[in-house]
Amino acid sequence: MHAWLCENPIGVDALTWKEMPTPQPAKGQVLIRIQAASLNFPDLLIVQNKYQFKPELPFVPGSEFAGVVEAVGEGVTNVKVGQTVACLSGTGGFATHTLAPAKLCMPLPEGFPAVDAAAFIMIYATSHHALLDRGQLKPGETVLVLGAAGGVGMSAIQIAKIAGAKVIAAASTDEKCAFCQSLGADETINYSTQDLRERLKELTGGKGPDVIYDPVGGPFTEPAFRSIAWRGRHLVVGFAAGEIPAIKINLALVKGASIVGVFWGDFAKREPEANAAMMQELATWYAQGKIKPVIDREMPMSELKAAYARMGSREVKGKLVLVNE
To answer: Which residues constitute the signal peptide according to the record (predicted)?
Structure first.
């Protein structure tokens, strides 16, 4: 097998494509021949030693992937050899093969392409958990999605529309705003050229959004929260801008608003039955054509560093997927 190995987490340039022995699964593990793996923001942080989870060195990055089970370890009953699965295990995806815990593997129904499957779990599970569980989104409410043209933003638009909400999508270019409208967003804000607070007042009649979906952080969090509706919920999803913002807590008091943390990974571990039911609903929605990841582009696994560069340029609309040919 071959894999992109991180032996020193000082950045993407330190990754090397190396031949390694193909491992055999231990108890509870499966060996997966990887067909596709998506590139997510945590995959950048982890090779820079900036992610909250710090794997033991050396490691293979790539948190989310899909492929075919080639071998199973002792005690594995939920998947079998020859079955196609998707998995989000945190590491191992940027390779030709990997070992993964069987309990993290999602068996794929027939007709679920590996490229879509590799771009599915993280974004849709995060947005479902955020909007419907943590945000308690109701039909007729208004959702502001920050960073709406990215992977999680894309999934948030789709799930909010399924929930019957009005969606205001905020992005950094007119092209990205048009992309968000193609996904179903009702209104858009280009926060590079428009004042976020003034535009939100205009679009909501001064009321403000009921739910703010915020995977960005940085300079947009405070103006968005200052614009929130009475009893609004600000969902803290991530910090793609790189800066963790500080908000004066009195703002929550005067709006009767909530700042709500969203950590799908721990939800899945702490509440496995609820997570399994959620994943089943998401798979059903995919089969019904209600949700589908938009693939910005497919790139050969050998071009991982170019994929990182494209993600870092903020040009990506939807998801980047690496494929083994």
So the answer is: none
How far is CA 88 from each of CA 165, 167, 229, rounded to the nearest angstrom? 29, 28, 35
What pTM was estimated for this model as a whole?
Answer: 0.88
Mean pLDDT of 230-237: 97
Instruction: Return the CATH class of domain 122-265.
Output: alpha beta
Mean pLDDT in residue range 231-256: 91
Comparing 111 with 68, which gets the higher pLDDT?
68
Mean pLDDT of the chain: 94
Burial class for 273, CB neighbours closer than 10 Å (0-12, 13-18, 19+): exposed
Angle at 222 between CA 221 and CA 228, to 5 degrees: 90
Rounded Cα–Cα distance for residues 318 and 155 (Å) = 9
pLDDT tens digit sequence for 269-304:
899 889 989 998 999 999 999 999 999 999 999 999
- CATH domain 2-120+293-323 topology: Quinone Oxidoreductase; Chain A, domain 1 (3.90.180)
| Rounded distance between C-alpha atoms, residue 179 and residue 169, angstroms | 10
In this structure, which amino acid lies at residue 219? P
Task: Judge residue 113's burial from the number of C-beta atoms within 10 Å of its C-beta, 0-12 exposed, 13-18 middle, 19 or more buried.
Answer: middle
Q: How far is it, in rounded angstroms, from Cα 179 to Cα 89?
A: 30
pLDDT of residue 236: 97
Domain borders along the chain are 2-120+293-323, 122-265
CB-CB contact of 319 with 123 (8 Å): yes
Read off the DSSP letter of residue 163.
T
The dihedral over CA atoms of 178, 181, 183, 185, expressed in degrees to the nearest 10, equals 140
